[in-house]
Amino acid sequence: MPVIGHTKVMVEGLLETYDELKPHFEKIKLIGA
Whole-angstrom Cα distance, residue 23 to residue 33? Predict the structure, then answer.
């Protein structure tokens, strides 16, 4: 059970990080397009 809870925390952290980085990825896509 602790492993599942730990994984959930990791996933939530990744989603938060993704939300912060998403604008940067959008800029890179626009430059690359």
Answer: 15
